[in-house]
Amino acid sequence: MDRALAVVDAEESTKALVREAGELAGAVDAELVLLHVTTNKEYEDKRQMMAEIPDDRVRYSASQAVDGAKQFAEDIGREVLDGIDVDYESVGAVGDEQNKILETAENHDCDHLFIAGEKRSPTGKALFGDLTQSIILNFDGPVTVVTE
């Protein structure tokens, strides 16, 4: 492992995921990329909410959403990786989670991916899809799945 990507989300299990990724990356002197993706729906919901404020100076742009996502990943990294000897970079993105995860992994030359597993029944996976399964099938490298 030279560079790993850890997907940071708003679930409590993210902290365990980032800690494990940081410890493993640090142990083999690899770099770590922390990614938080704001989905299109989350971005659009917040943009609509901000548009309802009766002040022309209040706006919510895609670049602000990317900056906010990057800051979220940075905050988790600072909290969880304190005391762990690992170099990390925080990245934010807006869009489809699967596409942004795979795109970021490719753009940052990541050879390992850490993602939180979703607890969903087989029927739920069939009906709604499963991000974790999709990443495992489409990422060209090892994927570590951390569950609660």
Description:
This protein has helices at 13-27, 40-51, 62-80, 97-107, 122-128, 131-138; strands spanning 3-7, 31-38, 88-94, 112-116, 143-146. The chain has 148 residues and is of the alpha/beta class. The chain has one domain (3-146): 3-Layer(aba) Sandwich (Rossmann fold), CATH 3.40.50.620. The protein has a five-stranded parallel sheet, sandwiched between helices. β1, α1 (13-27) and β2 (31-38) form a beta-alpha-beta unit. It is globular. The two termini are 24 Å apart.
Provide tags for this entry:
single chain; Rossmann fold; five-stranded parallel beta sheet; 6 helices; 5 strands; globular
What average pLDDT do the residues reach?
89
Structural class based on helices, strands and sheet pairing = alpha/beta
Helix content: 40-55%
Q: Quickly give the CATH architecture.
A: 3-Layer(aba) Sandwich
Distance separating the two termini = 24 Å
Report the CATH superfamily: HUPs
CATH class wording: Alpha Beta
Low-confidence stretches: 124-128
Separate helix tally: 6
CATH topology: Rossmann fold
Strand order of the largest sheet: 3-2-1-4-5
Radius of gyration: 16 Å
Task: Tell me the total number of β-strands.
Answer: 5
Tell me the count of domains.
1
Beta-strand percent range: 15-25%
Q: What is the makeup of the main sheet? A: 5 strands, parallel
Succession of helices and strands: EHEHHEHEHHE
- What overall form do the CA principal axes indicate? globular
